[in-house]
Amino acid sequence: MTGTSLDLFAGRVRDNWGALTSELIQNCRVRLAELLQAPRTEAWLADLCHERPESRELYRDPVHGFVLLAHTEAEGRYRMPHDHGESWVIYGVLHGEMEMGTYARVQGPGEAPRLVKRGSTLVRPGDVQVYLPGDIHDTRCVSGPAIQFRFTARDLRLETTMVRYADQGGIWVPSA
C-alpha cells in the first residue's frame, strides 16, 4: 500500500531524526522541498489549496515531536521580527511569494539591544528557507495569497524562550 506524499515526508523525516546537525537540517530541507512538489491531486493537498486555511496542522510526530503546519498568508501580511528560541524551523513556499528578512541582535556598551537587518530573500514556490535556534527573521507576503509549509523541530506553542521584537521609532527592540 502506497501512502501520500505527506505520509512519505513524515516517514522519511522520522526515520532520520536525531540531534540537530548539518545532516539533519539538510535531510529535512530536502524532504520539505520534495513535499512542495507533491501532486496537487492528492486529497490533502487539493483540500489545502482549495480551502486556504490561515493555519492547519498537517502532521505531528508522536515520538519526536516535530510538527508540520500549513499557513495561508494574505498579500501584504507582515510578521514582525522574531526567533524560535531553542527550536528551529524550515519554511517552504507552495504558492505565492514570501520575503523573509534576517537580523542580527546587537548591543553596544550601555545600550539597549536592537536589531540590524542583514538582508532579505524572496522565497518562491518550491523554495525552502532554514532558521536555526536563535536566528531572527521576519516574513512578508509579497504575492498572495501565499501558502507555505512551516516545519518545526517541536511545537512552538510550548517554546518559552522565543523572542519577538517591536518597532520603537524605527528601531527594533525586544518586546515585553
UniProtKB/TrEMBL annotation:
InterPro entries: RmlC-like_jellyroll, RmlC_Cupin_sf. This is Cysteine dioxygenase.
